[in-house]
Hints:
The structure holds two protein chains of two kinds. By secondary structure, chain A is of the alpha/beta class.
Amino acid sequence: xxxxxxxxxxxxxxxxxxxDTDAIFPARFLLxxxxxxxxxxxxxxxxxxxxxxxxxxxxxxxFKDTQILVAxxxxxxxxSREHAxxxxxxxxxxxxxxxxxxxxxxxxxxxxxxxxxxxxADDHARVLAAAERAEGLTIDLKTKHLSLRxxxxxxxxxxxxxxxxxxxxxxxxGAILDEDADTIVAFEAQQKRHMPWLxxxxxxxxxxxxxxxxxxx
Amino acid sequence: MxxxxxxxxxxxxxxxxxxxxxxxxxxxxxxxxHLVQEVSSPQAFESLQKHGRLVRRPDAHIAVADHAVxxxxxxxxxxxxxxxxxxxxxxxxxxxxGLPYVPLEDDRHGIVHIIGPELGFxxxxxxxxxxxxxxxxxxAFGxxxxxxxxSECETxxATQCLGQAxxxxxxxxxxxxxxxxxxxxxxxxxxIAEIGTAGGQGYAIEYCGPVVSALSMEARMTLCNMSIExxxxxxxxxxxxxxxxxxxxxxxxxxxxxxxxxxxYWRTLRTDEDAVFDKSVExxxxxxxxxxxxxxxxxxxxxxxxxxxDPASEQDAGKxxxxxxCLEYMRLKPGERIDRIQIDRVFIGSCTNxxxxxxxxxxxxxxxxxxxxxxxxxxxxxxxxxxxxxxxxGLDKVFKDAGFEWRDAGCxxxxxxxxxxxETGERCASTSNRNFxxxxxxxxxxxLVSPQMAxxxxxxxxxxxxxxxxxxxxx
Lengths: 217, 475
């Protein structure tokens, strides 16, 4: 995962509410197997239905290379598809600021080096106004502060663990295996003693497999 | 923390799975069960391979292809090469990593959230995840079940654990009596309309009360399934006799002495009397009439007897703008009667409403009637097992005689990534879970309804009150 420390960029204002992951990344592109290059389908239907005179926000010249998206309320609700975050990341966006997020979307952001920042109404309005003026923002994850060109300084919250992971570009699986390999083994041993029924018996497993016709695909 | 602090159902299952507590809220939790499908898994498997990692416990996973598969003409290869490649990739991956897999032509095949319970893979008190937001469905059994992204799928493959934040708890207490023509789908649409798409965000919902106790497992699954549409990743119901009865003959449920042990434990899986929820909602279902969504989120739902809201009467400028945009997309006019909205398609299916009971309820409305001219209607059973049982009951004949198509199991028209989808401007009465813009196909117009209401819409040719058809039947 890419490290995240400091970001200086204009921010694309997209103050819509209830933008779901189907809108961010339409389902028919979920058939693609490669996560690289998904950015060309980001907001596909909204981009293609916009007019030439009034293009989608990310297609306007001033926001073409933006690394920040300022969304509205409940951004990223709906389907768990991580493709939504892969597509956002693929076009170079590394931070999404919103009033609030869908829970699964937010979790997916952290796994991909994308920082989700939820702001209250006042702070959100100030950032949105700056974004609309195409002014640069500075986001400092180390100090958990966001600064605007007019000198305004806004503190934001990030859970410590996610902040650390973003800053070092942590391989989460590697970290769990390094720190907790033994703890997991111990947990499984006690669980197997107390709740052995949580583990399928070898008979159940083999009859499950044997019942499969194993043809076709 | 006091040793005997009263706990909610969610807290009990959470506590039993903490491998390491990072702090008061965050912990590494153990995952007992993982359902794997073709869309959210390929990138996870690819990354495992890249890092030279194995699946820690292959026996804790079951894989099945449901999203991309056609529901008719399943001759191989699929016409859609991308879909074919995606399902082939899943098969290749489950072979490489040694995971149990349910093939398309297996009698146990179906939508991942339908077959988990049917197999007895879903158990009370277990943690269960899947790379799909509707994993909340399995909470109907008192499992702690939630949807995850592909990266989290990879973490579960490699470690059988996930770092998670403990959710706040929310109690949804349902009292009263469901009226004729009203199903649990109507109740959950009414609930989401009341609390909003973020009403449950950050919460694990527990559904309880006399209405819930009286519900079948199938209806409980519909209820928990829709939790995510209120923003809640988790929706749970305490296991009871109904749950145990359902599980007793399922292939992968515990057997013999293991069943007895499990049973003892499962009976403790209920919220303690004095446990405190962070939020509480009370709904008297007696007041609820058949519901239908009119807008582009599930919270945009109203009784079928209503008219389309008027943006002019909305005081808040932001809400007014949203409403205008929503009505423009949905091609609806303020003040228009909802029960006069003409439809083109009907979809009875999806992990929300494709179980035996759903099909029976719809068939009872359809029986002896015909699908209205110009309407194309399909029934997509949630699994091969649901389909076979329905066929044994003659339900397929009821639907086909009326002019419905009867399909093979899959996610079908809920997700617009297989051949079943809406064309731009087509309007559909759908028993699925999401009415977002383009959800059923670019430019498609979705109205979420119960199975009975979908059946009624097919007969009327427009959205309509199913109770009118019932009066005719039973008067």
